Amino acid sequence: MTQNHVTPIIAYQGHQGAYSHLSCQRMFPNFEARACMSFSAAMAMVERGEAHIAMIPVENSTAGRVEEIYRQLPHTSLYVIGEHYEPVNHCLLGLKNSSVAQIKTVGSHPQALAQCDKRLTKLNIRPTATLDTAGAALEVSQKGDLSHGAIASSLAAQLYDLAILQENFQDVQGNTTRFLILSREHKIPTQVIGQKYITSFLFTVRNIPSALYKAMGGLATNNVNLIKLESYTPDGRMVATQFHIDAEAHPHDANMILAMDELAYFAKDIRMLGTYVASDYRYLKV
Predict the structure, then answer these.
(1) Burial zone of 189 (CB within 10 Å; 0-12 exposed, 13-18 middle, 19+ buried)
(2) Percent with pLDDT over 90 in the chain
(3) Pair 248, 227: CB distance under 8 Å
(4) Considering 28, 39, 169, 179, which one is annotated as catalytic?
(5) Residue pLDDT, tens place only, 100-140
(6) What is the C-alpha separation between 264 and 268, in angstroms, rounded?
(7) Which of 107, 192, 96 is nearest to 148 (CA)?
(8) CA 175, CA 24: separation in Å to the nearest integer?
(9) Which of 64, 135, 171, 214 sits most deeply, having the most CB atoms within 10 A of its CB?
């Protein structure tokens, strides 16, 4: 750390009261949560040593992946040291003397708006995109317009003195966001028998026929369970494709060692992003 903070700092994107802020409080109650205006700013705080860790959302069970993160992560020097699943309870917020019937427009982050699209359509409420959910709540408190609301957390309602006009406003119950916990330090957790781990890494396929098929073949034949495979073209170039993989494995597993050795024959620029304990949420029976 560049500053002598007694209390460790966790960075997140958004205003106070954002779901990232809520996740920080639940996962790291003894940390000081520091708001940043963008995902890149939150990650940069950690890179500069101004924060110990960052809490960054990467996907939602209703709206899908946060593509921006998968594009930014390769350009940082950070490592994934954990994951957190946050059940999302979207609330329709308004001024204290407003009502659902009065709301004509509502602001929120595009992901939140997508997760409440059917409800908004049914109520004939026009959505407007904002940088984050809590920022939309702040705007409602500042505008003083009874017809304007926000989709945000109950924490945002508390912080900005707004009324919760309707809870569980999302279209699908069980709506959940997955967060990654990022750090400058690359610490591989000590392997514990019976504990499940996730290993995340990046690679680019070589420009040869069936390169991806062969690269994936080594993981398949060595019985490594892939739980995520994301692809994108780095830096806007249409030449090579980069892949992000989450594997249910510890790097010291014998089958993972063999799989990574085989991967090296057909891929280049392999970069380990981190190994961390798999969240218990993954294995809950719904």
Answers:
(1) middle
(2) 71
(3) yes
(4) 179
(5) 999 999 999 998 999 999 999 999 999 999 988 999 999 99
(6) 7
(7) 107
(8) 18
(9) 135
Residue 177 appears among annotated catalytic residues: yes
- SS3 state of residue 280: helix
Q: What is the DSSP string of 206-228?
A: -SSTTHHHHHHHHHHHTT-EEEE
Name the nearest CA neighbour of 161 among 57, 56, 17, 11.
17
Collapsing DSSP to helix, strand or coil, 26 comes out as helix
How deeply is 192 buried, as exposed, middle or buried, from its count of CB atoms within 10 A (0-12, 13-18, 19+)? Answer: exposed
**Cβ pair 52, 61 in contact under 8 A:** no
Alpha-carbon distance 46 to 188, whole Å? Answer: 19
- Tokens 């020097």 -> residue: 77
Q: At what angle do helices 254-266 and 211-221 cross, to 10 degrees?
A: 170
DSSP3 helix / strand / coil % (the chain, rounded to 5): 30, 35, 35
Classify 188 as helix, strand or coil. Answer: coil
Q: Exactly one of 130, 177, 199, 275 is catalytic; which is it? A: 177
DSSP 125: P
pTM reported for the whole predicted model: 0.86
Nearest to 67 by CA among 232, 199, 212: 232
Give residue 175's pLDDT.
Answer: 83
260 and 280 in contact (C-beta within 8 Å)?
no
Confidence of residue 2 (pLDDT cuts 50, 70, 90): very low
One-letter amino acid for residue 127 of the chain: P
Annotation marks residue 28 as catalytic = no
pLDDT digit string, tens, across residues 188-245: 999 999 999 999 999 988 777 888 888 889 999 999 999 999 887 766 666 667 899 9
